[in-house]
């Protein structure tokens, strides 16, 4: 259905969970939330979403928020990350004693809107807080930009990218979440200048959490989200240099919809795959 269903390998993860051939992902009859979102799971101006098709969201709070804004057809299924963990609970797992340093995720833009912020200042703040070693993970757009990448490389940080966003027609993003899980589980701590998917993913697999630094601004950022003030108001306990690990993990499991993971048969029915044969 929609191209965003296939970003970061999400549709392939769901297909594999349902026992289908992940190499030939069937069309999902609806729209799957592709990243953590504190509105209703989708962009404010989601007129691109065809009327009558369901929206599959990660948590029940997003469904309730969507209903309060006049949107219908929200189904709570949990995040693709939760399904990946259900299938591969030990992927990349290391003993706590072998986990080292911090993986840091600067806030990123996308093709239509770039981020305004001072990477040089952010580098200095990271250096002042993190004892190291530090891995900086850039989004594919920023990773391809040598002007941005050089700030982190010059600081002596290891700079990586989990992969391209990908699509249904290529394999660029097929291992995005698997790569991310392996990286998160090799680090003791996950940090970012904005609360987002990566922070919750890290908390769910045992990372300590920190959210600090210039949150930067996305060009054309919609007022419906409420900006940094709203994130601080709703999740004050997740902001700061040293966040309580147990609290972060509990909130992450809720936001990622771990309790809403459906069984393979139920998920096939929800996604419109009930008549597709399982992989042999």
From TrEMBL:
Organism superkingdom: Bacteria
The protein, known as: Glycosyltransferase family 1 protein
Lineage per the UniProt record: Bacteria, Bacillati, Actinomycetota, Actinomycetes, Streptosporangiales
């Amino acid at each position: 259905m929609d191209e965003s269903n296939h970003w970061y390998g999400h549709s392939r993860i769901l297909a594999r969970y349902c026992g289908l051939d992940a190499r030939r992902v069937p069309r999902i009859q609806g729209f799957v939330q592709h990243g953590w979102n504190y509105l209703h799971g989708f962009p404010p101006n989601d007129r691109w979403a065809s009327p009558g098709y369901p929206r599959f969201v990660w948590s029940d709070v997003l469904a309730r928020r969507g209903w309060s804004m006049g949107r219908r057809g929200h189904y709570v299924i949990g995040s693709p990350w939760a399904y990946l963990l259900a299938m591969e609970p030990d992927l990349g797992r290391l003993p706590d004693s072998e986990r080292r340093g911090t993986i840091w995720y600067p806030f990123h833009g996308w093709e239509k809107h770039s981020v305004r912020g001072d990477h040089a200042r952010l580098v200095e703040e990271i250096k002042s807080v993190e004892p190291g070693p530090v891995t900086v993970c850039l989004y594919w757009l920023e990773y391809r930009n040598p002007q941005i990448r050089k700030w982190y490389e010059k600081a002596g940080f290891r700079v990586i990218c989990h992969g391209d966003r990908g699509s249904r027609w290529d394999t660029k993003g097929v291992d995005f979440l698997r790569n991310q899980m392996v990286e998160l589980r090799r680090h003791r701590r996950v940090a970012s200048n904005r609360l987002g998917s990566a922070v919750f993913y890290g908390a769910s697999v045992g990372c300590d959490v920190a959210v600090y630094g210039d949150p930067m601004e996305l060009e054309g950022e919609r007022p419906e989200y409420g900006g940094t003030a709203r994130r601080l108001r709703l999740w004050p306990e997740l902001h700061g240099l040293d966040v309580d690990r147990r609290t972060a993990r509990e909130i992450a499991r809720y936001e990622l919809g771990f309790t809403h993971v459906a069984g393979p048969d139920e998920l096939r029915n929800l996604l419109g795959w009930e008549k597709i044969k399982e992989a042999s």
